[in-house]
Amino acid sequence: MLEAICKHWEGPISLALYLSDAEAQQFLRYAQGSEVLMSRHNVGYHIVYKEGQFYPVNLLRNVAMKHISTPYMFLSDIDFLPMYGLYEYLRKSVVQLDLANTKKALIVPAFETLRYRLSFPKSKAELLSMLDMGTLFTFRYHVWTKGHAPTNFAKWRTATTPYRVEWEADFEPYVVVRRDCPEYDRRFVGFGWNKVAHIMELDAQEYEFTVLPNAYMIHMPHAPSFDITKFRSNKQYRICLKTLKEEF
After folding, report:
1. CA–CA distance, 115 with 119 (Å, rounded to integer)
2. In this predicted model, what pLDDT tens digit does every residue of 7-66 receive, in sequence order?
3. Phi then psi dihedrals of residue 52, to 5 deg
4. Which residues touch 238 (CB under 8 Å, ≥6 apart)?
5. Beta strand spans in 122-162 (E)
6. Residue 44, beta-bridge partner list
7. Percent helix, strand and coil across the chain, each rounded to 5?
8. Residues 6+ apart with CB under 8 A from 3
9. Which residues contact residue 70 at a Cβ distance below 8 angstroms, ignoring those fewer than 6 apart?
10. Spacing of C-alpha 205 from chain mean position
11. Angle at which helices 194-204 and 57-66 pack, to 10 degrees?
């Protein structure tokens, strides 16, 4: 995904990688052999060495956040491609919505494709026609609608100005925030509730959620993670997650 993300996003990137020693060496060789990556001077690679049996997703997010050198950050995941031009659009939106002096989280609406070869929409109009044709869906439409329902995709279709939405349980949008935003709770490892908890924290700290009318990102398909497989097959795993949720 990395080269593809770099082609879509010309701004700085802080990337956390969870690797063994051997994988770190392999990654280094890959990066040094990549024209796309070697031409960039604004990508920071932060390696967290593998330890234990769970994927420490929120620790990785905190590591990436800690090394940010810009006043604002767009919190994304590796399996998403931002729309072309998103970096410039976000820079303008941050000023327009006075992020410097207000507690806001700007939402970039998330979509997904189930096709490995996607001709990426160049505009919102093109994205909407792909939605109508069924080439694209709103993110997690089939599995976990609650995660993005408050974004109000029906309203977004015709929106031309940013609009405010209210937090609801299990909301997990991708957001732009100031760099002083709260950290992720690192107790959440593996699959489940890791981003939901962070958005809930933002709401508890009275952040205002504002949806951007001309921004979008698209989730690219991939094989299920080791952790979601464990979550689905292991009752104990689900009980542990439930306990952790209640503690949180």
Report:
1. 10
2. 999 999 999 999 999 999 999 999 999 999 999 999 999 999 999 988 999 999 999 999
3. 80, 175
4. 231
5. 137-138
6. 14
7. 40, 20, 40
8. 34, 36, 37
9. 11, 12, 179
10. 20
11. 50
Cβ within 8 Å of residue 248, ≥6 positions away: 185, 187, 188, 193, 197, 200
Tell me which residue has tokens 């439930």: 242
The answer to whether the beta carbons of residues 201 and 185 sit under 8 Å apart is yes
pTM score over 0.85: yes
Crossing angle for the helix pair 235-247 and 226-233, to the nearest 10 degrees: 100
The answer to whether the CB of 87 falls within 8 A of the CB of 7 is no
Residue whose pair of structure tokens reads 């070869």 in the numeric block: 117
E strands, 140-246, are: 163-165, 174-178, 208-211, 217-219
Query: Among residues 7, 211, 232, which one has the least CA distance to residue 109?
Result: 211
